[in-house]
Write a structure and sequence with these properties.
Number of helices: 17
Number of domains: 1
Largest sheet: none
Shape: globular
Helix content: over 70%
Radius of gyration: 21 Å
Distance between the termini: 29 Å
Number of strands: 0
Strand content: under 5%
């Protein structure tokens, strides 16, 4: 299977859409999608991250050069745009508009830059970035010699079970509290490597039907299952009822696995240009859409703009700003950071203990 799977860009775009549409009501607009639909978007993001790490990196040996490329790519993917948004949010809230939707005081800015923020939107970046540092442990264990590999797998399995059991009490921004979601994605990546492509093709029909039911249940859930799809979160500030439900996590994993199967319908549904472009813009869209919604809502009310026009304007402006952010900042700056980090780390001393440990 090719390293790049275009349909997964579409999954990322769909996940971003769930998050954006679920936030309309919280910013003063009518409800376009259930306010908890965004939780499914985040579960999809986490599962997809685990899948991509497993798909892209587990087939490679975790030597020093591979880890350098991995670290540079992961840091460049998150840090430049995230740091910029954090700093701009602090300036905006502290000096320009105190009711700015990202309420970023000095303490919150510190929590953001240390990836321990519990604030809306920012909380989910912490587990994602922390997971990037934890994944090489599993990656390196995959290429350890027996019996060391078996012992490492046993230890990792024990830690995962412990993390899942204790996840209701762990901070929600802590990667170990969400590790079972990332591991579901890694398991999906291992699964498609082990099952022959011919057999995977036979699963396409059932998985496509499952995906259709999954999407339908989130967008327009039947009354009979609505309470299970969108259980209330009163008394559940960390949404444990969503993020610790193995059925919901397993459903997201199956949607992703289904999208990896080579089939013309996948190219039409998940691999079309529009939704793939949305997937490319997803990180910028994720970080920027709430300020856009707030701006349009405030200006729309002040000017007496029709609500339908406000909603259309908010959607359009969110997409345009995300596209500009991706093309003019996120992608070029990320590429520059990746090149510089890779060059710097590969110039380091070959006799360094990390070199010797990984190469030996």
């Amino acid at each position: 299977m090719s390293r790049h799977i275009p349909a997964l860009d579409g999954i990322r775009g769909f996940a971003a859409s769930l998050v954006v549409l679920s936030h309309f009501q919280s910013t003063g607009f009518p409800e376009l999608l259930h306010s908890r639909a965004g939780d499914y978007g985040v579960i999809l993001f986490f599962t997809l991250s685990g899948f991509l790490m497993g798909h892209l990196y587990l087939p490679k040996k975790s030597d020093y050069d591979a880890l350098v490329s991995y670290a540079a790519a992961r840091i460049a993917r998150i840090i430049p745009l995230y740091a910029c948004i954090c700093l701009l949010s602090f300036i905006m809230h502290r000096f320009i508009y105190t009711d700015f939707i990202y309420r970023t005081e000095l303490i919150e800015l510190f929590r953001q830059v240390t990836f321990t923020s519990a604030a809306p939107i920012f909380w989910s970046i912490g587990p994602e970035f922390q997971f990037y540092f934890l994944f090489p442990i599993f990656w390196t264990a995959t290429y350890a010699k027996q019996p060391r590999r078996g012992r490492l797998y046993l230890a990792i399995g024990f830690v995962l079970v412990a993390c899942y059991v204790t996840s209701p009490w762990l901070p929600g921004f802590f990667a170990l509290a969400k590790m079972h979601i990332f591991m579901a994605g890694i398991f999906g990546a291992i699964l498609i490597r082990r099952i022959p492509e011919v057999q995977m093709a036979r699963l396409f029909g059932p998985l496509l039907l499952f995906t259709a039911l999954f999407v339908w249940s989130i967008i327009a859930p039947p009354t009979s299952v609505q309470l299970w799809i969108f259980p209330p979160i009163s008394g559940d500030p960390k949404h444990i009822i969503y993020y610790s439900d193995p059925l919901k996590i397993g459903a997201c994993m199956l949607v992703i696995v289904g999208a990896t199967i080579r089939h013309p319908l996948n190219d039409i549904i998940w691999g079309n240009r529009v939704i793939r472009r949305l997937g490319a813009y997803s990180f910028s869209l994720y970080l920027l859409h709430m300020p856009v919604l707030q701006l349009v809502q405030i200006q729309g009310q002040a000017l007496g703009v029709n609500m339908s026009i406000q909603i259309l304007s908010a959607m359009t402006l969110s997409l345009v700003l995300a596209g500009l952010s991706h093309e003019l900042f996120e992608r070029p700056v990320g590429n520059w950071v990746r090149r510089k980090m890779t060059a710097f780390l590969r110039r380091s001393d070959p006799g360094h203990p990390l070199h010797r440990a990984l190469e030996g």
